[in-house]
Structure formats: C-alpha cells, structure tokens
C-alpha cells in the first residue's frame, strides 16, 4: 500500500487563542505536520518556540514574522488572525497556490473581495464557524426558515467571551444568512442589528440579532422562530475551541487536490 504523505500545514497568528489551539491539534495528528507559524511583526511572540507557546513542549520551530516564507513552505495555511492580515495572506496563498483555511471573522467588503480574487487561483475554505454542530445548525436554520415562512419572527441570539471585538458574531451573521436564504430574501434588507428606545413595532420579515458578552463563553448561538402560540428555538453551545481547530484541520486535509475556488464547511462536511 502506498504511504500517505503528511500534509505540511502552517499557522499564521500562531500565538493567538485559536493559533495555539491549532498548533496543539496539528502536533497531535499523524496525517499532517506543523510546518511553522507567524505572528504580526511587533508581537512579543516573535522568535519564541511555537510549541512552548502552545503548551505542547519544545518543537524547535520559532515564531516567524514573514508570512511569504511560511506560505512558500506549506500545502495549506490556517488563518485565525485579523481581517486585514487575512486579506494579505489570501494574496500570498494565490501566488503560491497554497490552500488557505480562513476562520477570521469581521471581514469588510474590501477584504471579502480580496479573498474572492485569491480563490480564482487556489482553494480557499472560509467559515465563520468551523464546528460540525454549527454547520448542521446552519442547514437546519435554512430548512426551518423555508418551511415556516415569515409568519414566524426570526431572532438570533449569541453570547461570547468578554474579549471578542466584533458583533454580532460571524456565526450569528451566517445563521442570519442561512435564514434569509431559506426565505429567499437578502439579509441586508431585513437584518436588525440592535434595538434601543422607542423604535416602533417589529417589522414583518425582519431578522433580528442580539449579542451578549461576558466571562469566558466560547460561543453560544440560538435561532428563535417565534410564531403565534408557539416558538421553536435551535441552540448550539460550544464548550471548547478545540472543535474549531479540529474543523480547520479537517478543512485543510479536504482541500488537498481541490481546484481553485471559495469553499465552505458545508462542502468540507458534505452537507450539500
Ligand atoms: P486572538 O486575538 O487571540 O488571536 C489572533 C492572533 O492573530 C493574535 O495573536 C495576533 O497577534 C495575530 N495576528 C494579527 N495580525 C497578524 C499578522 N499580520 N500576521 C500574523 N499574525 C497576526 O483572537 P482569536 O480568539 O484567536 O480569534 C481570531 C479570529 O478567529 C477572530 O476573528 C475570531 O472571531 C475568529 N474565530 C473563528 C472561529 C471559527 O470557527 N471560524 C473560531 C474562533 C475564533
């Protein structure tokens, strides 16, 4: 039997909360090998051992500050950094035809465009949430929204840890997008991101968002379908960031040999 060659995978932002989790996930696996990691140039982590930072023990791999070098040495790069950094990394992925697995959220229009351009040249998997459960929830949300129609008001509630900088979460927006697709409407026409003061009654067909922040909550999401006399609530509670890291590595392995394109976790997990 032909031996499977381990996939060389890099981690940009390897000193971040997710970055360290990704390093631990890669080190534990036999089908991939950690090729290296980078941090932003002014990070105090530059030059430190990646394994010691991630708590896996010494790996003899130093945190670098040159993503071009890392992309040149990898088949896939995992990216949970910042929107600006992710857009720049997508350009490097396109240049080197390296798979780019993007978990970063809070991207603006310009960054979205940069990723779409890069995806003409290489395989990019992008997901606001890489857990299996959330991707099942996305599929269910679309299906329930399609079945119930706008007699049922949709509200999306999320809670995250106190350090999260963007709101609503990328996952909440993805759930809103799934609900809007189910109803055949454009999310930006019906999204209500906050309510305060005397704002009048709820508009039929709106999709509302509410964001709570506090403690060390990894990520809770509930989609509420509120009708007359009944309410359906679909909830996903994430207890560990490991779920996202496992999903990202699964996406990297899936991307092997895939033609250029922008993919999502539904493609990776075969959810259609
Ligand atoms: P974090 O702040 O702990 O980590 C981000 C890291 O990226 C930091 O160490 C930072 O220094 C580094 N970074 C910034 N710019 C860089 C650059 N140019 N080059 C290299 N490194 C750079 O944040 P976090 O909690 O790990 O989350 C990171 C992102 O991932 C956020 O957008 C978050 O919402 C998202 N996230 C997504 C998922 C998912 O499943 N898709 C799960 C968790 C978090």
How large is the share of residues in beta strands? 15-25%
List of distinct ligands in this structure: nicotinamide-adenine-dinucleotide
Series of secondary-structure elements, N-terminal to C-terminal: EHEHEHEHEHEHEHHEEEEHEH
Broad shape: elongated
Number of strands: 12
Structural class: alpha/beta
Strand order of the largest sheet: 3-2-1-4-5-6-12
Count the domains: 2
* Rg, nearest Å: 20 Å
The end-to-end span amounts to 32 Å
| CATH topology assignment of the largest domain | Rossmann fold
Helix % is: 25-40%
CATH class of the largest domain: Alpha Beta
How many DSSP H or I helices? Answer: 10
Query: What do the pLDDT scores average to?
Result: 96
Unreliable spans are: none
CATH architecture label name of the largest domain? 3-Layer(aba) Sandwich
At the fourth CATH level, what is the homologous superfamily of the largest domain? NAD(P)-binding Rossmann-like Domain
- Biggest sheet, open or closed, and with what strands and sense? 7 strands, parallel
Strand-helix topology:
Layout lengths: L6 E6 L4 H11 L4 E7 L11 H5 L8 E2 L2 H6 L3 E4 L3 H14 L2 E4 L6 H10 L4 E4 L5 H17 L4 E8 L9 H14 L3 H4 E2 L14 E7 L5 E8 L4 E8 L3 H14 L5 E3 L1 H5 L3
Parallel strand pairs: 1-2, 1-4, 2-3, 4-5, 5-6, 6-12, 7-9, 8-9
Antiparallel strand pairs: 7-10, 10-11
Helix pairs in contact: 1-9, 4-5, 6-7
Bound molecules: nicotinamide-adenine-dinucleotide.
